[in-house]
Amino acid sequence: MPTPPSAARAICNTAFAEMVRAGLCARPKELQPTYFYDALGSALFDAIMRLPEYTITRAETTLLRAHGREIIRAAGVPLELIELGPGNGEKLALFLQHCTNKRVHLIDVSAAALESARTRLRQSFDVEVSVCEAKFDDGLAALPQSKCKRLVLFLGSNIGNFTPPEAADFLRIVHGSLLPADMLLLGVDLVKAQQKLLAAYDDPLGVTAAFNKNILLRINRELGANFDLLAFDHRAVWNADASRVEMHLVSLLDQTVHISGLKLDVPFVAGETIWTESSHKYTENAFRDLVEKAGFRFAGRWVNEEQSFLEVLARA
Q1: Is the dihedral of CA 47, 103, 299, 314 positive or negative?
Q2: Distance of alpha carbon 121 from its chain centroid, rounded?
Q3: How buried is 4 (Cβ within 10 angstroms: 0-12 exposed, 13-18 middle, 19+ buried)?
Q4: Domains and CATH numbers, the chain
Q5: Which pLDDT tens digit goes with each residue over 186-197?
Q6: Which end of the chain lies in a sparser environment, N or C, as judged by fewer CB atoms within 10 Å?
Q7: Cβ-proximal residues to 309 (8 Å cutoff; 6+ apart), any chain
Q8: Residue 272 CA to chain centroid, in angstroms?
């Protein structure tokens, strides 16, 4: 039975507090990007997706518009669609127009994102939408049994937020939740020129910087902290050895932040960083190897050559 919404929120709030305590007591300090997506964070990410520097969403949407019908046919019908991290539901809508069985499940830790996606889909389609406010693995475990084939969507290169070992573990969890006929559709951003990569995570309008700093605002609001957002700067760097873009928040001065909800004081020295997100980029061969080692078999691939973005359909 799915977790009731109120209980799910309590679980998420507890997990958020535990993540903040563990991350800010770690060396180096870090915060998990899973919790970027409160109502404001979700709105800011919607804005990021419209920035000219951020090509991931447009590259993937172009692929899905051109090949959505082909992907659905390759996956087989009838299908239940399950999206992990649905955002505003825009991409899922591209598939629903090609499906006969209009039943979808949305899984996310962000209540705001779930409601936005559910509203969009119900307004556009005669569709049954269930939502689960939970981490992806917990949400998959809570799915009701079904006689239909299932297609799990994990789009937007969200797989890149995991380290490669974490991504391998996650894909094995997804594989274990599926039946042999079920499918997984993954979108992944490929390695490209460093200048183009960094521009996507440090836009001149400052929207990504606001998105990054919003995690501090959330800690202030939900855990009673006194972060001064003007005392931290946004920084994006390309780590070539790890093949990832990293986002950090940099303390501009020596300071101590008090988090009353955790009864915790967190000291910072000038120049010290909080590592908030990594976005790993793959070559096609490396990504195929990752997916197949998790137990999946490739069933299709589509590439946006201009924007170096790959869509992969894999069978459980």
Answers
A1: positive
A2: 19
A3: exposed
A4: 1-226+284-316 (3.40.50.150)
A5: 999 999 999 999
A6: N
A7: 55, 56, 59, 60, 63, 157, 187, 188, 189, 190, 303
A8: 26
